[in-house]
Amino acid sequence: MTDISTSTIVNRRITRNADRTDRKKPARLTPERLPAGWRLIGPLIILMGWEAASRLGVLSPNTLAAPSTAVRTGIDMVLDGSLPVHLAASAARAYSGLFLGVFAGVVLALLSGLTRTGEALIDGVVQIKRAVPTLALIPLVIIWLGIGEAMKIFLIFTAVLIPVYINTHAALRGIDIGHVELARTLGLSRAEFIRHVALPGALPGFFVSLRLAVALCWTALVVLELVNTQTGIGYLMNRARDWGQTDIIVVGIIIYALLGLVSDAIVRFIESRALSYRRALGS
């Protein structure tokens, strides 16, 4: 009896300990997400060090203007009306190429991802273009389209098209086969299948590609606006380089960075709304 009682007590203790372990919060393999404000600590430290080096004379204004100087210059350019004009020109080029590239990328991904004929005709061509840097096409596109706005928009378009196509095509190919079989069982038409199954299934990959496309359209624009332009942020920076105006160059860099970050934030906001159903299913 004593042995039985002792083993029973031991088993009960083991069971209680196991229950306590189960009730404990599972260990996280990755650190918890930091609040958004904390991510500004690193950039703020860099800005303060940059400003201090400029004020102490360690960093010459001829080499790099201080952040405070660049801010004052930017405000003056806004007040005299010169900056908004060039900003509007850059935004028009970037977003025209972005819109055309996203539209073409989605259409080509649908044709290639949903039909064998489309994949045979399209995928190989896109993969070849993927291996060729967009900026390497500048000499040829100048011969085709000249050095005006059409050339710049076309090159942004080609830079944006590739990531949109690749990620959307991969998402279409990764749609759950069970959903495809269900659509066949229900007798959905091709248009209904695209609307109710293909497009919703491709949305996660599409938004990943859209964030890459937004960054690429501004990256390509930085280089393209150095080629025979009379308007745009790149034109301001190129002219400032000739006159050694590092404050205007810094203003241009900050504007490119802000435009890229704001565009990415807008895409992430739309993504969170469009894919809110995934959080609801996971909860």
UniProtKB/TrEMBL annotation:
Protein's GO biological process: alkanesulfonate transmembrane transport
Regions that span the bilayer: 92-111, 131-147, 153-172, 193-221, 248-270
GO cellular component, one term: plasma membrane
Matches recorded under SUPFAM superfamilies: MetI-like
Principal location listed in the UniProt entry: membrane
Membrane topology: Multi-pass membrane protein
Keyword Transport part of the UniProt annotation: yes
Location of this chain's protein in the cell: Cell membrane
Entry keyword annotation includes Membrane: yes
Cited function: Probably part of an ABC transporter complex. Probably responsible for the translocation of the substrate across the membrane.
Protein name according to UniProt: ABC transporter permease
Organism: Rhizobium straminoryzae
Taxonomic path: Bacteria, Pseudomonadati, Pseudomonadota, Alphaproteobacteria, Hyphomicrobiales
